[in-house]
Amino acid sequence: MTVGIEDLTRLSRNDLLAVFQAAGRQIVLPALWGMERQVLNQILRTLPAAESRSLVEALRSMPTPALDTVRVARLRLIDVLSRLSREGRIAFDLPKDLVA
Fold first, then answer.
1. Other CB atoms closer than 10 Å to residue 90's CB: what's the count?
2. Mean pLDDT, to the nearest integer, of 62-88?
3. Residues 77, 18: contact at Cβ < 8 Å?
4. Exposure pattern of 22-58 as b/e (b: 16+ CB <10 Å)?
5. What is the mean predicted confidence (pLDDT) over 23-43?
6. Distance (Å) of CA 28 to CA 31, 55, 58, 99
7. Full set of structural domains in the chain with CATH
8. What is the three-class DSSP state of 89?
9. What is the pLDDT of residue 93?
10. What angle do CA 32, 42, 63 make, to 5 degrees?
11. Residue 39 CB partners (closer than 8 Å, separation 6+)
């Protein structure tokens, strides 16, 4: 079992904010680009309204990223999620095969 971008929907508001803040917008925005609408909407509903509106506006105004940029950003965001979990900074249970 591996961690995927859709696992962001399992996070609490505070934990999702912590992941997004640790990753930074330069990773978060391309990672969210082109995400399945249902998953993106669930993430946006979890965030505070102001943060959600800010992300939506930024996504609407950004140029279309290259597919490789999106892929790399998603991998980096999952790395941040995994690191914060291992450090005990967020409540997310990593699959046993990913715990080092």
1. 21
2. 96
3. no
4. bbeeebbbbbbbebeeebbeebbebbeeebeeebeee
5. 96
6. 5, 9, 11, 24
7. 5-98 (1.10.220.30)
8. coil
9. 75
10. 25
11. 5, 6, 8, 9
Tokens found for residue 52:
């959600």
Cβ-contact 45, 52 below 8 angstroms? yes
At residue 62, what is the residue type?
A: M
Burial (CB count within 10 angstroms: exposed 0-12, middle 13-18, buried 19+), residue 11: buried
Residue range 56-65, pLDDT digits in tens: 999 999 999 9
Residue 36's nearest CA partner among 2, 13, 8, 12 is: 8
DSSP code at position 72: H
Number of other residues whose CB lies within 10 A of the CB of residue 94: 16
Residue 92 exposure: Cα atoms within 13 Å on the Cβ side: 32
Output the six-digit token pair for 97.
Answer: 């095969």
